[in-house]
Design a protein that fits this description.
Elements: H1 4-27, E1 36-40, H2 46-54, E2 59-62, H3 65-78, E3 83-86, H4 95-101, E4 104-108, H5 111-124, E5 129-134, H6 150-160, E6 165-170, H7 179-191, E7 196-198, H8 205-210, E8 215-218, H9 220-223
Helix pairs in contact: 1-2, 4-5
The chain binds pyridoxal-5'-phosphate.
Length: 234
């Protein structure tokens, strides 16, 4: 839930984040229009999403299928422009629901999941945009394909499964300087001819924009702090 105070601040926070993205893009000689802001509303109720929609934000991220399934269908009918991204781990038994619900799935990270997505996308005739998640810091507890396996996994997705990938996503190790990890993700994306780069969160999105991010995923700097949970993926 969001406090009234948090709700009142959402519009102003969004304006500030957009200005900071534009400044970071300009400083890097990039066009700010190349960078999309994904507002990560996980743990926050639908009223927080509505406040962001009222402030002109259309792109949202969630890390759990069940939470998104409860929150967004009612909002979509009044906001057809709404674009929903899955940024958390996807279990194969939730693939059907995820394909139906999300416009973008940023967490394609293993063969079994890629196969299930290919099958389900064909069945539903719906093609969410796909990002491969890379475990860029090779952390045992974190989801994502290891960097050294990324090229082969991308080839499998494209050539064997016929999946049209849009980009790559990563979450650098907490507490480490993120720039080398962002640079590594960009290097993997470039050599695989993937244009989309989803990287950067509340604490480091300006660095990510400087290093080529096309999607930044910002939660707490827009919606306020979240209760810490054991399932937090960061
Ligand atoms: C929660 C989350 C974010 C947003 O984190 P903030 O630090 O609140 O901006 C971004 N990406 C992923 C994958 C997340 O789980």
């Amino acid at each position: 839930m969001s406090s009234d105070h948090d709700l009142q601040r959402i519009g102003a926070n969004l304006r500030e984040i957009r200005a900071r993205i534009a400044a970071a893009a300009q400083a890097a000689g990039r066009n700010a229009a190349e960078v999309s802001l994904v507002a990560v509303a996980k743990t926050h109720a639908a009223d927080a999403v509505e406040a962001a929609l009222a402030a002109g934000q259309a792109v949202f991220g969630e890390n759990r299928v069940q939470e998104a399934a409860a929150k967004y269908p009612p909002l979509r009918s009044s906001h057809p422009m709404l674009e929903l991204h899955l940024i958390g781990p996807l279990q194969t038994n939730k693939v059907k629901e995820a394909v139906a619900l999300f416009d973008v799935i940023q967490t394609v990270d293993r063969e079994k999941l890629a196969r299930a997505l290919a099958t389900e996308m064909a069945r539903q005739g719906k093609r969410p945009r796909l990002y491969v998640q890379v475990n860029i810091g090779e952390e045992p507890q974190k989801a994502g394909i290891p960097p050294r396996e990324a090229d082969a996994f991308i080839r499998l997705c494209r050539e064997e499964l016929g999946l049209a990938l849009e980009g790559m996503m990563c979450i650098p190790p907490a507490g480490a300087a993120p720039a080398p990890y962002f640079a590594l993700l960009r290097e993997i994306a470039i050599r695989n001819r993937l244009a989309g780069l989803s990287m950067g969160m509340s604490e480091d999105f300006e660095i990510a924009v400087r290093l080529g991010a096309t999607l930044v995923r910002v939660g707490s700097a827009i919606f306020g702090s979240r209760p810490k949970t054991a399932t937090e993926s960061t």
